[in-house]
Amino acid sequence: MKKQHLPEKICIVCERPFTWRKKWERNWDTVKYCSERCRRNK
To answer: Is the pTM of this model over 0.70?
Structure first.
């Protein structure tokens, strides 16, 4: 995949877009937060 074609989501805490990462490959459907900081501040 090229970087400009990566899927994006909107973080439910900060409401900013974030793109797919390799470490989220297996569970991309369940990812809701852009970072650990947002996950802790839900």
So the answer is: yes
What confidence score (pLDDT) does residue 40 get?
Answer: 95
The domain limits of the chain are 3-40
- Could you read off the pLDDT of 1-42 as tens digits, one per residue? 567 789 999 999 999 999 999 999 999 999 999 999 999 998
| 39 vs 42: CA distance, rounded Å | 6
E strand segments, the chain: 8-10, 17-19
| Main-chain phi, psi angles of 17, to 5 degrees | -75, 145
Helix (H, G, I), strand (E, B) or coil at 24: helix
The Cα–Cα gap between 41 and 24 comes to 20
